[in-house]
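Record type: monomer structure entry
Structure origin: computed from sequence
Chain ID: A
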Amino acid sequence: MAGKFDPQNAQNLVEIEKQFAVKAVEQAQTYWNLLAKVQPKELRLTKLDDEIFQHTMETFPELAKEPYENLTKLDEEWMKSAEGKERWRKFIMSYEKKVKDHNFGSLIRMDARDEYAEKNTIFVTRIQFYAIEISRNRLGLNDKAHEMAKEEVEKERLQKEREDAKKKKKKASS
């Protein structure tokens, strides 16, 4: 295929957008499952976690200020303001050659104390996801999410056990 891809003239733009959305949802589900299984402070998302954490804290001191309210509950208005966009753009571009798919879309929880849900989720780039979630993990802000995710997994396990027992009982009686 000669030339560069022009998204404005793509034939299946809607289909491509759906595929990106599906990929972002799958990544969110994978991350939630990881939170259920691994203590957040021990979770490594990339080989560059230390660098990303340090860079985030230096570039966005408002996120590093205790008790970390700006990191616990993200301010979408701030992130999308002219100043916020410019600061994030510089941050994102510094990972262009370091992090695969650094600008690929990802879903992130607005409030670290809650699970993924329509009202608690926004779309960010992959490196923004890493910057925020690595920081939340390191600072203990995902501990509640870890407990919630573990409880959810346990409920699902018990539900499956009950369903399997019903199937077994039904099979035995026929």
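Annotation 1: The first strand starts at residue 105 and ends at 109.
Annotation 2: The beta strands are 105-109, 121-125.
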